[in-house]
Amino acid sequence: MMKEFIKRIPKAELHLHIEGTLEPELMFKLAKRNQVDLSFSSIEEVRDAYKFSNLQSFLNIYYNGANVLLHTEDFFDLTWAYLEKVNVENVKHVEIFFDPQTHTGRGVPISDVIEGIHSALEKAKYKFGMTSYLIMCFLRDLSEEEAIKTFEEALPFRSWIEGVGLDSAEVGFPPKKFERVFAKATEEGFRKVAHAGEEGPPEYIWQALDSLGVSRIDHGVRCMEDAKLVERLVKERIPLTVCPLSNIKLGVFEKMKDHNIKEMFDSGLCVTINSDDPAYFGGYINDNFLTIQKSLNLSFKDVSQIAKNSFSACFLPQDLIDNHLQDIEIFTLNEANNS
Ligand code: ADE
Ligand code: ZN
After folding, report:
1. Model-level pTM?
2. Annotation says 254 is catalytic
3. Are the C-beta atoms of residues 285 and 91 closer than 8 Å to each other?
4. Residue located nearest, by CA, to atom 8 of ligand 1
5. Is the CB of 277 under 6 A from ligand 1?
6. Nearest residue (CA) to ligand 1, atom 9
7. What's the 3-state SS for 247-261?
């Protein structure tokens, strides 16, 4: 009953790295097609290697997996496989991260990356009526100069990219290091987001707001250590894109029962539920909803509110957001009447 409710409720996914949707089956297929040598001999061996102790141990494997992505059609196949999956999960809108530097650093032209992803997003709009935005992330463990170079390389595709973000290893790489590239993004009218407060301290969330001017925080679970910060996030309605399965797999919380999303929610924060890197963390968006609902005993009303938050927090025009909110309201009322 709850499982069906979660499956069928309309939702948006706002924290999803397209490279993190690379399932071992597709990894093998692309390795063969592109004659890339994988250090694994079977799909089981790949899955066995997915045991992470922290963010860095995951990133090492994740960047290695991305080596099979070489051509436009690889990026198309990767994105299309994800979109087909989440269409069945009733995702109506996606805001997808991609990491151009993970690919340009291997000699893949940025145009191949963007064109492949973009064509799949267009196909999903046409076939499923699913809307989408692309968010280009800078790798924060590389220099700001490299981020600026990437930003400039992406400018010919400005109309296909809605926003910029910041990801990769967090601790030791404070957001303010990227002040100049985010200022350029502001000049060009991009939306701005940043991973902050996943492993890093609340100070990084302050910096993302004050030095980068972001309008949404990715993860942000460590904000709860700083009451003044929570007050600000609530007051300014800054949404947080929380990723429960990711947080457990990377040791941010030991067990799902220890997750602080309920406290975040009860503090008045606009929290959303997302999958981050579903092929690596053992579940797509509905699995993330279900596991957190079960562990923290969330009600139908809570689940409905979190689904609404996913649209309130997204970058769609307000009239479309209002339509989605209304759809959720009607869906929830119908379900309540039928039960
Ligand atoms: N890149 C992919 N997933 C990430 C995460 N959870 N944190 C930072 N960078 C990432
Ligand atoms: Zn992430």
Report:
1. 0.98
2. no
3. yes
4. 168
5. yes
6. 168
7. HHHCCCCCCHHHCCH
